[in-house]
Automatic annotation (TrEMBL):
Its cofactor is [4Fe-4S] cluster. This is Iron-sulfur cluster transfer protein NUBPL. The gene is Nubpl. It comes from the Eukaryota. Iron-sulfur cluster transfer protein involved in the assembly of the mitochondrial membrane respiratory chain NADH dehydrogenase (Complex I). May deliver one or more Fe-S clusters to complex I subunits. Its main location: mitochondrion. Belongs to the Mrp/NBP35 ATP-binding proteins family. HAMAP family: Mrp_NBP35. The keyword Cytoplasm does not apply. It holds the Pfam family ParA.
Amino acid sequence: SSSSRDESLRDKRARILSRGLPKQKPIEGVKQVVVLASGKGGVGKSTTAVNIALALAANDSTKEVGLLDADIYGPSIPKMMNLRGNPELTPKNLMRPLKNYGIACMSMGFLVEETAPVVWRGLMVMSAVEKLLRQVDWGQLDYLVIDMPPGTGDVQLSVSQNIPIAGAVIISTPQDVALLDARKGAEMFRKVHVPVLGLVQNMSVFRCPKCKHETHIFGADGVRDLAKTLGLDILGDIPLHVNIRETCDSGQPVVISQPQSDA
């Protein structure tokens, strides 16, 4: 019958397509991988990734946490984690992550000069991502938090298809143009069968330090509405606060430097 022919064609197509996909292989020593992603740049994804990694470690001192900066063109983890220098090599020729606040960190920023632009085409970027994933001695980690570059391009696909990921967290501001891209990010992870753990609404409200008046600079509930549409959870609602920005810029993220503060 035509329906059984259609089914066998679909099966055949699925088999052909699956041949082209790389086999997922876990990162040695890493139990769970969580990726932090955003469709758009500038929504506070790296700041959130750093504070989530520190919070995971602070919540349970028995857990070992690592942080991988997969943003090849604009690595910001070295500055936010107050780390400088080049990784040492192990006898097996693997890079040793740099460590601060108990978090093992690896970033392209450790391998190039701070002010040097990375002017590379796709293949070189993919090679760098492969090295950051496979040629790092993470030791034994309970959680590896990966700070993805913005967008839905080669790096996101390569990471998603090469390693098993426990889940993705999407960061967005409530602004309409950011939400459009956040939705694309969530849909991309669904397409490559990575569970989306939920969304974080960042820079949601600004409270004037003098008069305490609250202003929704980027809109009020955009991420909440998007989460409802996609059937996803809201994992956090973070205000636009000068302390969050200042502490990350100074390499002392708010979770570690002001753990009792509202922020």
